[in-house]
């Protein structure tokens, strides 16, 4: 396993909560820890698994403010205390992939192998970061498991993350969806990339040109703020209808800074949680989402753990609406 040297097994210390509540009431009580250096358990019911990507290297290369390597631990601590209403699905913590040597490419490959491992065992991944460079590693695992299926990608984000590659074809937190687009080109596959929450102030003119080249479908944050929900949900319905499987990515900088101060690139005109939740639920309930990720939590910039709690709330929505 090429990823084993970059893997850290999960820790029970992050899953703590009140001792005075009934068993099975909260995530800290139902979360099962699995070490994916070993074989995954043969679960008797459907399962989702959190896997962290502890990495700042992509953000460093993209000249952002660092701190996202600590994101996975903060999300787990916030999620641990949340109630668990659902009883027909298992929840696993599958540990972390770490990038401590600036070798982003090796860490992304390791994440891809770990995601593929979970998918191969019938477990739906929820990758938590870490910078949005996790998307390129995440996709590698999806591609390995589903090389021929029509894949729809939906990204809730203020940015396209389709910047040009750096020297020696190195990627960053700003390049993952261009890397995915180029992988589709090489394989002669249809590329269906859809962005919700894009901001004109967050993307230079050339990025709009790149997005157009790859026929990216866009719902601007402005559209949603001004109430154009028909365009918004038409895009969501289109992604569901025209694809066999869906990869859902959520960058926390899609949210406005009062809700998500703890990100690499805070957004003054970002969205509110309730502008995201209905679409997130609809996608999860479609039965077509085979993998999720939540990116760009930087706890050192968070206020009252707002962003960590928001990320945990998005996982709560995924877990409680994911169709099995």
UniProtKB/TrEMBL annotation:
Q: Which PROSITE patterns match?
A: ARGINASE_2
One Pfam family name from the record?
Arginase
How many cofactor units bind, and how?
Binds 2 manganese ions per subunit.
UniProt xrefs under InterPro entries:
HutG, Ureohydrolase, Ureohydrolase_dom_sf
Quote the record's binding site residues for Mn(2+) 1.
Answer: 132, 157, 159, 161, 251, 253
Per its Swiss-Prot or TrEMBL entry, what cofactor is needed?
Answer: Mn(2+)
An example of a Gene Ontology BP annotation on this entry? L-histidine catabolic process to glutamate and formamide
Q: Which reaction does it catalyse?
A: N-formimidoyl-L-glutamate + H2O = formamide + L-glutamate
The top EC class, named as a word, is hydrolase
Gene Ontology MF: a single term: formimidoylglutamase activity
Stated EC number for the protein is 3.5.3.8
Pathway the protein takes part in: Amino-acid degradation; L-histidine degradation into L-glutamate; L-glutamate from N-formimidoyl-L-glutamate (hydrolase route): step 1/1
For this UniProt record, the keywords arranged alphabetically read as follows: Histidine metabolism, Hydrolase, Manganese, Metal-binding
Which residues make up the binding site for Mn(2+) 2? 157, 159, 251, 253
Similarity field? Belongs to the arginase family.
Q: What is this protein called?
A: Formimidoylglutamase
From which organism does this entry originate?
A: Aquicella siphonis
